[in-house]
Amino acid sequence: MAQKIYNWGIIGPGKIARKFADGLQLLPNARLHAVASTVLERAQVFAANYQCPNAFGSYQALMDCPDLDIVYIATPHVKHYEHTMLCLNHGIKVVCEKPFSMSMAQTKAMVDLAHAKKVFLMEALWTLFMPSMEAAVAMAASGVVGDIHSAKADFGFYTPYNKTSRLFDPQLGGGSLLDIGIYPILFFQRLFGKPSSENIQATAVFTRDGVDESCVFTFKYPDNRLAFGHSTIAADTSIEAIIFGTKGKIHIHSRFHHAQQVSVFRYENGPEPEVHHFPYEGWGYHFEAAHVMDCLDAGKTESDVLPLSFTLELAETLATVADKIGLKYPEELLKL
């Protein structure tokens, strides 16, 4: 039986969308079929770069595109809820960029509609499909470095203040937590599960516009396991993750969320690590897309690797951290 070719659409042809479109080109069963923007010319330029046959100057117009199988949503955070609901209400399968939405209520509404419509929906947490991440988590679970007692991860980059940048704009969901702090948090959740709200501690430094410039958070889990995370848009950090066990440690090299190398240090073997290499083509987004198409081949409405329950728990943890640091976004961004 011939392999089905999936026709992908993209809403929001920006930087992340380009990386995702590059990834689709590495997959024999995927093609970019349509792209939509609020500016037709922008969609047309993007489409031409990828030999994409359909370009639209509105998101509504994309809904009527023939032969469209699934849409990747890459608009700013504050539009994820609106655009996901638009697609789901038209029965269109969705992979939505992280963070899934701006509030727990929005995330729950998105999940509930997908369930009601029986339409595939997944958060685009591409990191979890990287071979290095999958291997590191599996190594930790195998006991290769003993019982895991703690982990740490950071993500930071320096960006000069720019009032017009989405990173500094509360109206666009700015700040470090939602943009990059989500990476250490989803890593901890994959490793240890969801922390209870009473076992989350966090503090932050804010910009003059009221978004978090830097954020530090700690999660405490059963059996006294700890996770230490840090995100910042004020400094370049190592962007690495380390899992500590009673017999050694696992180092996911920079940048840990799409690393090509993992080192395993076992104390009994001395200071030299076992080094595992995970080379890949492109940016790494094709691993996520390939998994989604496997799910669709199997007739699934959600991923078994990244179920919607994981997204709901991640949204709750992000909301708790935001509450503990006093991060507040405009009320109109949180509404259903």
What oligomeric assembly is this protein in?
A: single chain
Count of distinct strands = 14
Q: What's the helical proportion of residues?
A: 25-40%
Task: Kindly report the spatial arrangement of strands forming the biggest sheet.
Answer: 8-9-10-7-11-12-13-14
| CATH fold naming of the largest domain | Dihydrodipicolinate Reductase, domain 2
The biggest beta sheet reads: 8 strands, mixed
Name the average pLDDT: 97
Order of helices and strands: EHEHEHEHEHEHEHEEEEEEEHH
In short:
This protein has 336 residues and is α/β, with parallel strands linked by helices.
How would you describe this structure in keywords?
336 residues; alpha/beta; Dihydrodipicolinate Reductase, domain 2; 2 domains; 8-stranded mixed beta sheet; 6-stranded parallel beta sheet; 9 helices
